[in-house]
Write a structure and sequence with these properties.
Helix 3 packs antiparallel against helix 4, helix 4 packs antiparallel against helix 5 and helix 8 runs antiparallel to helix 9. This protein folds into two domains: 116 residues, no CATH class; 92 residues. The protein has ten helices and no strands. It starts with a helix and ends in a 14-residue tail after the last helix. By secondary structure, the protein is mainly α. It is globular, with a radius of gyration of 18 Å.
């Protein structure tokens, strides 16, 4: 019951539709009715400007952080199932809570189960789970965005970079990563989930119709 409570609370935290709240409260419309129709920070930046976009991005990241913090507060230190992962029990609980928060953001219960891509909420969760790999992924994201102007492309490549960096550090540079065999599967699964939520963006990229932030680009033809 304790784990179910953690999952439920984390899911509800992740479900808080930050962009929808900001757009309706201060601009009088649902952000999902404009731009790409997504309630993430990228569409908010595009439709409402950088100030609203930054607020939404921070709030969405904090959802992932908050879900992990609440899970730690609720957890009494004993898992209801055997732990054969190599992680401490509390790390398993943080991961479960983080995944629930990401799913809450993607399938928000407070906005008709039509949410965002889950990138920022996943970012908040990963801050305390895989900081080195996350830092590399964020760096790759920024490079792709300033080179191409495509935030969606940067997000997709960064998602793939996360488990790839872990594989390289562990198998090539022989860095000891606690619970590697479990963590690599988790990061790979998270990457697949993020790619799935970006399937419409991938289609538009191939068709040449994806929205581009030209102001962020350094290289132009």
């Amino acid at each position: 019951m304790e784990i179910l409570l953690i999952v439920l609370v984390a899911y509800l935290i992740g479900s808080i539709p930050s962009a929808v709240i900001i757009s309706k409260l201060f601009y009088g419309f649902d952000i999902r009715e404009k731009g790409s129709g997504n309630m993430g920070s990228t569409n908010t930046f595009r439709v409402l400007g950088w100030k609203a976009g930054l607020v939404v991005q921070i709030l969405d990241v904090m959802k992932g952080v908050a879900a992990v913090i609440v899970a730690v507060k609720i957890f009494d230190g004993v898992l209801p199932f055997p732990n054969a992962t190599g992680f401490e029990d509390i790390t398993i609980v943080k991961t479960i809570a983080g995944i629930a928060a990401v799913l809450g953001h993607i399938f928000t219960a407070f906005a008709g189960f039509r949410g965002g891509k889950g990138i920022n909420t996943a970012l908040g969760m990963l801050i305390g789970i895989a900081p080195v790999e996350l830092a590399v992924a964020v760096g790759v994201f920024l490079l792709v965005v300033v080179a191409s102007g495509y935030v969606s492309l940067g997000s997709i490549i960064a998602a793939v970079t996360l488990p790839t960096t872990m594989v390289v550090r562990y198998n090539i540079f022989h860095v000891q990563i606690e619970g590697y065999n479990t963590l690599i599967l988790f990061c790979a699964g998270l990457a697949v989930l993020i790619i799935y939520t970006h399937r419409s963006n991938i289609r538009r990229l191939f068709e040449g119709r994806e929205n581009r932030f030209n102001k962020l680009r350094i290289f132009h033809r």
